């Protein structure tokens, strides 16, 4: 499963970091980093993160 | 920046009952400085700084000690306030938020939209023929509360009781909290009992609706305990009523001042979603949000000590001419995001519901109420903190 974030609309609220901390995190400079390819076991968490994003910036494929 | 320049920053008396977030004093302070000193900590005035500080890792949500600061120690309200999502940080906050998220998913909005429409139409039917109403008493209050009834699976007729309980509990947020403590405690007890009854009903009849989703999250009690489940339902009710009631009143007042925008919305109902955002940019009910420094740090050369209260002036930020060179109310304009739902870890949990219900309401109101105008004295809450109209008499031409 592919994970991408549209950084043109992401506002760095960090709701994805709360919802799926194994996939999304903040680096030391406060930038968002994520695992671009996750396995099926993480599908539920990643979908929860995409749902919870206030800006709906997370793209799953 | 030294302490000397801190002393030179503009000062805003936010405790003055006549203080207005839209006053000339705030505009001048924003022009002169990115922040102002206030009675309680500092106020951040400009867009870019509010954006950064909303989600700054050295700041926590700022109202968690409110009961204690009001001289209230212990009791049902103070316990609830301290334990609920908004007052929590770190791992407990993350866990509670993860458990609550499914009940607030944008996917549920599709199913709720026809209910929002039916509710709005029913309320408009009640006053349309007479060509006038108190827009708060006859529309925004029953609508905001009716939406909560829909969410909770309660009959619409319970709205009045729920609205009264929420209003009495809301006295806790005022400066007279301590004097009103007995009323606040009784209201909190009643709301907790409501939540208990809803949970019992949902345990007997499992479902995938709002309360049903929260009850499912409570299946693993290490993730969401029985008490946390009740606290979350109380928060959904308490947090969902006044905010939406006030925001829709502010929307109507703003449109009355911009009749061409109302006519445009009636012609192009698809603009309703953008209209909600634009109203929340120019006239948010939540005019500021509060943070507290968890440790000493420096921002924009200003040393900020642990424990400092920081008011993030959303209203001032989203009219900042540096970012909004043409700040006038325009529902067709492309805008940068507003801060009406806060931001960061504590971004409003109910925003998909609020956006959905306000969109449907504005769409139908613009269709059915032509040429709305003020029709008597509007009574307002203070133009700071959480603001809005208490009574909003309007006249209109029924469509």
The greatest inter-chain interface is formed by:
A-B, 16 and 20 residues
| End-to-end separation of chain B | 59 Å
Write out the CATH superfamily name of chain B.
Cytochrome P450
Instruction: Count up the domains of chain A.
Output: 1
Strand order of the largest sheet of chain B: 1-2-3-9-6-4
For the largest beta-sheet of chain A, the strand count, sense and barrel status come to: 2 strands, antiparallel
CATH architecture annotation name of chain B: Orthogonal Bundle
DSSP strand tally of chain B: 13
**Order of helix and strand elements from N to C terminus of chain B:** HEHEEHEHHHHEHHHHHHHEEEEHHEEEE
Assembly state here? heterodimer
Q: What is the overall shape of chain B?
A: globular
Number of helices of chain A: 2
Alpha carbon gyration radius of chain A: 10 Å
Strand order, main sheet of chain A: write it out.
1-4
Judged by helices, strands and strand pairing, the structural class of chain A is: alpha+beta
- The fraction of residues assigned to DSSP E strands of chain A is 15-25%
CATH topology-level fold name of chain A: Alpha-Beta Plaits
CATH top-level class of chain B: Mainly Alpha
| Global mean pLDDT of chain B | 95
Tally the beta strands of chain A.
Answer: 4
